[in-house]
Amino acid sequence: MERLKKIVLKILKWTGISIASILFLMFIIPILFPGTISEQVKLFANKHLAGKLDYKRTHLTFFRHFPSLTVAVDDFLLKGSKPFENDTLLAAKEVAVGINLKNLIFDRQVKIDEIYVTDAYGNVFVNSKGEANYNVYIAKPSDKPKDTTSIGASIKLDLIKLRNWNIKYNDHSARVLVDAKGLNYTGKGGLSEDIFDLETNLDINKLDFSLNRIYYAKQKTLHADLITRINTNALTFVLRKNELRINELPLKFTGFVSILKDGYNLDINAASEKTTIRDMISVLPPQYLDWAKDTKIEGNSDLFFSLKGRFSEPKNLKPRLKARLLVKDGFVSNGKAPVPMNNFNMDLNVDLPDLNTEQLGLDLKNLSFDLGPNNNFKAVVKTKGLEVMQINADVKGAVNLQTLSQALGLKDIDVRGLMDTNIKANGIFSLDKKLFPKTNGYLNLKNGWLKTKYYPNPIQNINIVANIVNTDGTFKSLGVKLDPFKFDFEGNPVFINADLQNFEDVLYKVRAKGVLNVGRIYKVFAKKGFDVSGLIMADLSLNGRQSYATTGQYSKLDNKGNLILKNIKATTEYLPKSFYIKEGNFQFENEKMWFRKFFATYGKSDFALNGYLLNTINYFIERKGTLHGKFVLNSNYILIDEFMALKNGDNTDKSIEVEYAKVENPKSSGVVIIPKNLDVSLEANAKKVEFKGLDLNHLKGLASVNSGQVYLKNTSFDIVGSRMNIDARYQDESPLTANYDVALKVLDFDVQRAYKEIDMVREMATAAKNVKGIVSLDYKLKGDFDQNMKPIYPSLEGGGVVNLRDVEVKNLKMLSAVGDNIGAKAFNDPNMKGVNIETHIKNNLIHVDKFTFKVSILRPTISGTTSFNGLLDLRIRVGILPGGLIGFPVVVTGTHEKPKIKIFSKTGQGIIDALYNKKSNKVIREERRAEKKTRRQQRKEKEAQEQKAKNAEKQINKDLKEK
What is the DSSP letter of 134? Predict the structure, then answer.
């Protein structure tokens, strides 16, 4: 026993010494090596990261991620790669890397084998051009041999742990958005090996996924247990074990993903087999999940999904998507339902080759359910394509909507009425080709009722009798009757009767009468965007044929009645703010829709219109119809700036092009986008028009909008105290670019006032700051606007004449320098009254034709070239008595601020013009001073050119002899 006691004590002693030693080492190692580790980690980061890295403090410890020795960085911030160097790529409360202890102690090398990132925000972004912000890692050139002798930091990862991440992946080029909140990830494996298995455990609390702004997942929970074989040489990911759960729906994946130089190649198959309808419903949007909790749902479902092919933006390649959803023997019942929804079955197949919606194939082989005897519904629909759609459909059912609502247990909506439908269609639908499937069918709704929780009063007495017939598959035989469509809302009856025949040349009979409170009816559906007091009052009778208006047979039309709008709020996808129609009184009179009284506002701008529109019937019938019209427009104030597409406003329903342009250019205003389906002339009269701080007063003239372009003709306005006359054209190219041309004439405007108030004058004519007096201008220009609707100067082309009617030019540096060099101080105050200066602009250069003026008894003549950036290459002939016939040459180079003078010289130094790409709206090369060449260089270049010409001539003669 004594001996055993000694052994136990010895073991405890050495165990205690070992633990103490380990604790001592864990305490002392961070003290011994902090400089080495901190220095080498910084060296590694600066050497291998292109994005800007910042953090507050570093720690070296065993205790944060025991038992690993870790370098921890607090308040970590990493910026993106160009052109996103000002945007955050990753921000984290802590980023820690695990250090290989053996290499640190014995080799004094930092080998990183673990990474921990906690409480992080990641923002991965790819813009519309395909430029990504995550290209921050600078890889070593592969053709260089590895340096095995250098000492420094290296990565050999075996573990990655991410805790509490919020990460957003936004790809504008693919129009994909993934937003994950509460992400926790653990990845294990030999991540530094060429080929390794990565074991992944992933949990996400809330996941959003959208494609083309359509959300396919919203606030979903996700759990993934994956094993992925990764080949870093070929950048290939093979999905070996991949079990995924979205809410309650399990999915299993197989396949691979290969990263290519210009995209990726993938072959992924997913399945959720032998699950329940309730599991399937769990992936619906969150607002439907509360309904599912209180509803009895039974039945089986299967989901199959595949994505196969290459994605390459440069080569325009995209993978093929296939999916199938099966639902069998479904049963849905709410506790209060007298009859359940029974025998619910669905078989839906989706095929999307090249992710191209024009090739979209939908095959709904069966959608059916019943609510008891004589109360059932069945649909079989098959389509192929979108613009040209092949359709085969058979829809039939008689359903009591109140019974259906009760069976489903709908809480937010109360719907009633007897719906009976029977529609069969087979053929091709194409608006462009004027094809419509052979169709025979009807839809009847009797004694309908609709009430929601969003508004206390129902829409009631809804009755619809609709019939559709097509006998030969063309628009010509298509007939649609709506007799009647009527309902009551808040004591106001509304009814519409319509009979439309022959959609190649529509023969229409439409009668509409009623009062509709737009704001309140949109509250019924919880829709925002319309003014709560908006009213539409209609009493219309429209009879005629589409071609009667287009061929001028107006006497055959019988269109009459009134349409009154009050306090209506409307938006368009290309404008940042809403239009408010304060009052609109429209009268229909055969071919014309008269604007008898129309007043609207847009932001700070106001508009009063009086006139008419033509082709209104065609516009609503045809998809590509164009509205024609003629109006008188009066306005007290128009602020053009607030029409620029990327300005801030209340409109949330912008086009995807505008939305992406705003995200990618947050500080830009964009340009004004013009509707493409208008052909309208305006006799405009505006008291004040403001554009980028410039006031145009008492504007009068003719304006027109046609095919997405705005034209101004014989238009005049007051600017800086003078009357300007212009003819102009404007056209947008995208939300960020536009082009224009303008011809302008202005008499007797004050140069100094123009210099102070007009940005373009200061930028184009910097010398104007030394000029006082009255000037006239006759000029033509064309060019492009940039993303802030400012002129892009290298794009400008044009020319004209500036008349210096009554001016004083004092202390112009270029002329003063000439005077100083020739001993004539009078050049500081030349006489330029009545001088005409003709110039031509192209590629950021201003070419000045010869003009002569007086300087005391001298007669200088100036010509040459200057640039918008101030470069000079001017020739001056200083004429002396008698009459300037005798003179001597002077060359002026340098810049406006620092001119260089050479007397008795005709050799200047040319300016190479800028290069501008009109398609991309980019300056490829800025103008620059031409290289100085000696006479010997010039002679050699001439001899080389002559020899090249001789060689070319010999080759031509040789080719002719061979023939």
Answer: -
137 vs 262, higher pLDDT? 262
User: Cβ distance 828 to 888 under 8 Å?
Assistant: no
Q: Which two tokens stand for residue 564?
A: 């009154």
Instruction: Show the tokens assigned to 752.
Output: 């100094």
Distances (CA, A) of 549 to 431, 481, 591: 21, 22, 6
Give every CB contact of residue 572 below 8 A, 6+ residues apart in sequence: 579, 651, 675
DSSP state of 49: B
Identity of residue 112: I
User: Considering only CA atoms, which of 64, 56, 57, 58 is closest in space to residue 26?
Assistant: 64
**List of E strands, 133-175:** 154-171
Task: Give burial (CB, 10 Å; 0-12/13-18/19+) of 80.
Answer: buried
Average of per-residue pLDDT values in the chain = 83
Predicted local confidence at residue 151, as pLDDT:
43
CA dihedral 323, 326, 331, 335 (to 10 degrees): -10
Count CB-CB contacts under 10 A for residue 846. 17
Of 379, 371, 320, the C-alpha closest to 348 is 379
Exposed/middle/buried for residue 892 (C-beta within 10 Å: 0-12, 13-18, 19+): buried
Rounded distance between C-alpha atoms, residue 499 and residue 507, angstroms: 8
Please name the residues in contact with 261: beta carbons below 8 A apart, sequence gap of 6 or more: none
The pLDDT tens digits for 586-618 are: 999 888 899 988 999 999 999 999 999 887 877
More confident residue, 526 or 184: 184
pTM value is 0.77
Q: What is the pLDDT of residue 635?
A: 96
Peptide linkage before 314 cis (omega within 30 of 0) = no
Distances (CA, A) of 55 to 72, 79, 474, 899: 10, 12, 69, 49
> 379-423 pLDDT, tens per residue?
999 999 988 999 999 999 999 998 888 888 777 788 999 999 999
Of the candidates 852, 840, 811, which has an alpha carbon nearest to the alpha carbon of residue 828?
A: 811
Measured between alpha carbons, how far is 487 from 467 in angstroms, rounded to an integer? Answer: 18
